[in-house]
Automatic annotation (TrEMBL):
Top-level EC class as recorded in UniProt: oxidoreductase
Main location: cytoplasm
Protein name: Sarcosine oxidase subunit beta
Keywords recorded for this protein, A-Z: Cytoplasm, FAD, Flavoprotein, FMN, Nucleotide-binding, Oxidoreductase
Subcellular location: Cytoplasm
Domain Rhodanese: 35-79
Keyword Cytoplasm: yes
PANTHER family assigned: FAD-DEPENDENT OXIDOREDUCTASE DOMAIN-CONTAINING PROTEIN 1, SARCOSINE DEHYDROGENASE-RELATED
Catalytic reactions of this protein: sarcosine + O2 + H2O = formaldehyde + glycine + H2O2; sarcosine + (6S)-5,6,7,8-tetrahydrofolate + O2 = (6R)-5,10-methylene-5,6,7,8-tetrahydrofolate + glycine + H2O2
Cofactor names: FAD; FMN
């Protein structure tokens, strides 16, 4: 693998940039691997990366039915934060956020992490109390957040309408080191680093069946042939229920479409991320100048990867009442992804009823921020067979045992 650096750039310039190799190998499937991971989204790739880097397990294949990063990882609005309420959530999201701080250096790939600050607006008394409680919890958890009043909100976001036509801004839960990263780059960076360590990334390879013997996984059937494995990781977000069905168990997951849209590019007008959960919308500005706008999820289960049209109108209504300055802007494009929602809005990183088969899913509307931490915890689980401290609480069996990790306030609109 060519190491990317300013010197490499200068050397390549002498050669008119003809000599750059491919970022990752386009591998053909072998008949057997120690570990197979289904799904080359951020979580699957990060799992493979930390299996190789932290545990020395490199005989690994990551199978992807489409192109890598083409699922939710390449469709999200890239918000990164760790201001969750419950201890288990704060631990894994903060681990993830802290890994993002040095991810570009660790992967030798610029993921454009931008800790520009994130505000979650409080627009009702209830929300204000809930966010203040979260700030106290975060203090105990070692997560740096603070409660700020309306004037400070206005200072940070001059274009905001504090008084609001329906809901005034009463303050905000502020995470100064929250922010964004470039979503494709996170997938590409992990893919490149995996490939360099010998992991095979196999695109256009859909898993259509899971083979088992005596209660243990033995391999997978794919559109590119059968592949044997000792351990299998299912990391397929909105398709987790489908893959679990192939393995012979059910997951407490619902799949729904969630959508986002971007505006035409404009000059810099917003240098923080703002989430407004009461009116239901959130917004940041990309490096290209587009406003990146997140909408709501459909109220019914589906696999359309598009989202219902009425959400576009609802989301823009919410943002226009908070930021009247954007009312005349044109929207450039809209898209959707299929997210995997659990009842308590917390993820699953777990062993399963099938021996040797592990599952990572349930990140719902907010798993981009979790990619490094989730991959770290899932690799730990798959390497050792039992969960480490980061994953211990996120077993799929918690729903049977009544040990919910309720993040529905932190993740109501989410992201
Ligand atoms: C519109 C939108 C906005 C969002 N905004 C944010 C945000 O601001 N911040 C945040 O933290 N999170 C956000 N999210 C959530 C985040 O995108 C996801 O939680 C995260 O990307 C999930 O990553 P993943 O790797 O688990 O799944 P994915 O990236 O979806 O990867 C799963 C992969 O599995 C593949 N696959 C499925 N079935 C098979 C099969 N049978 N065989 C082989 N491969 C298969 C798929 O093709 C896919 O590439 C948003 C999501 C959406 C849709």
């Amino acid at each position: 693998m060519n190491r990317y650096s300013v010197f490499a750039l200068a050397r390549a310039a002498l050669d008119r940039h003809q000599g750059w190799g491919r970022a990752w190998r386009d591998a053909a499937p072998k008949t057997r691997y120690d570990v197979v991971i289904v799904g080359a989204g951020g979580h699957g790739l990060a799992t493979a990366h930390y299996l190789a880097r932290n545990h020395g397990i490199t005989n690994v294949a990551v199978l992807e039915k489409g192109w890598l990063g083409g699922g939710n990882t390449g469709r999200n609005t890239t918000i990164i934060r760790s201001n969750y309420l419950q201890d288990a959530s704060a631990a894994i999201y903060e681990k993830s956020r802290s890994l993002y701080e040095t991810l570009s250096q660790d992967l030798n790939y610029n993921v454009m992490f931008s800790p520009r600050g994130l505000l979650m607006l409080a627009q009702t008394e209830h929300e204000m109390k809930a966010y203040r409680r979260t700030v106290h919890a975060n203090l105990l958890q070692g997560v740096q957040t603070e409660w700020i009043g309306p004037q400070r909100v206005k200072d940070l976001v001059p274009m905001i309408r504090i008084e609001g036509p329906r809901y005034p801004v009463l303050g905000a839960l502020y995470q100064p080191r929250g922010g964004t990263a470039r979503h494709d780059a996170v997938a590409w960076g992990y893919a490149r680093a995996c490939s360099a360590m010998g992991v095979d990334i196999i695109q256009n390879c859909e898993v259509t069946g899971i083979d088992q013997r005596d209660g243990r996984v033995t391999g997978v059937r794919t559109t590119r042939g059968d592949i044997g494995c000792d351990r299998l990781g299912l990391v397929v977000a909105g398709h987790s229920g489908v893959l679990a069905g192939m393995a012979g168990f059910r997951l407490p997951i619902e799949s729904v479409a969630l959508q986002a849209l971007v505006s035409e590019p404009v000059k810099p007008m917003l240098d923080v991320v703002v989430m407004a959960n009461t009116v239901h919308g959130y917004i940041s500005q990309s490096d290209k100048g587009e406003l990146v706008i997140g909408g709501g999820s459909d109220g019914f289960n589906n696999y359309t990867q598009r989202g219902s049209f009425h959400h576009i109108e609802e989301t823009l209504r919410a943002l226009i009442e908070t930021f009247p300055a954007i009312s005349r802007m044109k929207m450039l494009r809209q898209w959707g992804g299929i997210v995997d929602m659990t009842g308590d809005r917390s993820p699953i990183i777990s062993t399963t009823p099938l021996g040797g088969c592990f599952v990572n899913c349930g990140w719902g509307t907010g798993g981009f921020k979790a990619i490094p931490g989730s991959g770290w915890a899932m690799a730990d689980l798959m390497a050792r067979g039992t969960p480490g401290p980061l994953a211990a609480d996120f077993s799929m069996f918690r729903f049977r045992e009544g040990r919910f990790i309720d993040e529905s306030v932190a993740a109501g609109v989410a992201h």
